[in-house]
Amino acid sequence: MTVRWIPSTRLCLSAIAACSAAASAPAAEPAAFDLPGPELSVSVSRAGRTLPIGKVPALATGDVVKIEANLPADQSIRYRLISAFLRGVTNPPPKSWIANAETWQQKEKKRILKLTVPDHARQLVLFMVPDTGGDLGTISDAIRGRPGEFVRVTQDINKASLDRSRLNAFIRGIRSQENTHPEFLRNVAPVLSSSLAVKLNPDCLAKVVEFQAACLVENRDSLVLGDIHSNSLTETIIGAPTDLALQLSATREGGYGFYSPYIGVVRDLARIFGAFNNPEFNYLPALGIQNGGSVSLLLNSAPSFRKPKSVLVAALPAIEKNVPPPLRKSSDAPICATRPGAVFGVDGAPLIFATDYAYDIMLRLPNKAGRAVDVPVVARADKGGYIFASSFNARDFKGSVAARVHGFWGFDAFEGPEFAVQFPEDESWQVVPGQRLIAGQKNRLAVKGASLTCVRNISVQLPGGRRLTAPWQAQEDNVISIEIPSSDLPTPGEVKIVVQSFGVDKPTILTMEASLNETPSAAAL
Span 328-423: which CATH code? Predict the structure, then answer.
């Protein structure tokens, strides 16, 4: 297995005491999660449907969770995979909520965990334990003896994993742009930063092109900003005190700086796990990076296979009500669907860009016949929203319509914002009545149509056949004002106004007679 690692942001434990202690005494810089660990295959089944873990933001009571360790064929250390459901800081789980699988076995029943989420369970924690015989009892006693600490650890590992996903997406976007068109980083980097809620150092964009990408990903441990939606997916137990802890940790007095509210995760996890260390085992937190049906574990410390042996601790999504992404459209301005690279800008939910939790996303809009049609769209962090996944027949649509983003978030359908969308409507163009073109004078001509955002350019063909590009401005009530300088219209004659729209092969041509003292006439060809 090959895992490419990127150092992660680090997450402050949501305990008030831990954050307050950090305020009074600076702590040593903890190690980053930069060591690739084992990989797990995880699927979740609910109501007859099965999804890979990468599409499941939250578990629910009754879910069937299937977990298998993907270890290499020549794995020399036998690992026992142990799972435990948790139900609260003051309520130890029953022994029946703790299960284990022997990853070296050939029979699937012994090698794979197949769990059903029980009533009242809130979290699911996993342990990868070197087999020593008797380790199940040791882990079980630790979980049941101090469940609150594992509740806290599970919550914080989940937060750190989601933050890491955003950071990974940001760095992928920067590297991709660096490898294709580095000269555009100045424009792309701020969009990536906004989409993923990642800190941007504007000084980097003042550097020469060759050094911008490297500068943008420096000090990556402090890049990730807080994200309310990520917090809502993991805060199942701590509640309001967590918010206060995050406020404390985000201050300079707290020792963390304003951009890194979660950087104390390693320090605090080590403190908590230290209480469980014994001559047999110590505990190492592992971030879970989801990709389809796999969870790649990242470690911040090399595991030990001598006493005390290292137990890897990972977490699956919280067991809670599904929280759909709080998507907002980033602008109320209408969007031309036929404009190349049209973007339906959204903000408020960085995880739609960093994870696969949102999938099968469509833009639903009415066609000419009034029937609702779904057109696939994909989220692009470097664009700041959704773009069309592939080409579609724009001729089936006409004029201005309301379109809504919708799709799935985990097992549930969700609806996003509604956009004003426009398609070219060439036959609607006409010269506003009551106007004259006067030869030898500066003229400003008003033409009226529909779908102004779809106008690509406007040109004027003068008497004698010369054509020039005309400056124009959109006005209210679907009116465009076109400027024709006096030097361009020195003599009377027929003038053609050529309106070219995006996605339309043939332009609309309006004709008008320029004269010295005659009443004009206008017609649409």
Answer: 2.60.40
- 400 forms beta bridges with 422
Which residues have C-beta within 8 Å of that of residue 298, sequence separation ≥ 6?
Answer: 3, 5, 8, 33, 34, 35, 36, 37, 164, 286, 287, 289
* Contact (Cβ atoms closer than 8 angstroms) between residue 215 and residue 204: yes
| Per-position pLDDT tens, the chain of length 525 | 333 333 333 333 333 333 334 333 444 555 678 899 999 999 999 999 999 999 999 999 999 999 999 999 888 889 999 999 999 899 999 999 999 999 999 999 999 999 999 999 999 999 999 987 667 888 898 899 889 889 988 988 998 898 889 888 988 888 888 777 777 888 888 999 899 988 887 887 777 777 777 777 776 555 655 555 565 555 543 333 333 333 333 333 333 333 344 455 555 655 666 655 666 788 888 999 999 999 999 998 899 888 888 899 999 999 999 988 989 999 999 999 999 999 999 998 999 999 999 999 999 999 999 999 999 999 999 999 999 999 899 999 999 999 999 999 999 999 999 999 999 987 789 999 988 888 888 888 999 988 899 999 999 988 888 888 889 998 888 899 998 877 777 788 888 999 999 999 899 999 988 887 555 444 444
| C-alpha to C-alpha distance for 491 and 511, rounded to whole angstroms | 16
Strand (E) positions, 449-507?
A: 455-461, 467-469, 472-474, 479-484, 493-501
- Cα–Cα nearest to 202, from 222, 224, 177, 185: 185
Domain 328-423 identical in fold to domain 427-524? yes
Q: Which of 112, 120, 128, 106 is nearest to 68 (CA)?
A: 112
The helices-and-strands tally (H runs, E runs) of the chain is: 10, 28
Whole-prediction pTM value? 0.81
DSSP secondary structure of 501-513 = ETT-SSPEEEEEE
From the list 27, 505, 525, 1, the residue with the least C-alpha distance to 266 is 27
For domain 427-524, give the CATH number: 2.60.40.10
Domain ranges of the chain: 16-162+238-315, 328-423, 427-524
How big is the CA angle at 432 (ends 428 and 437), to the nearest 5 degrees? 125
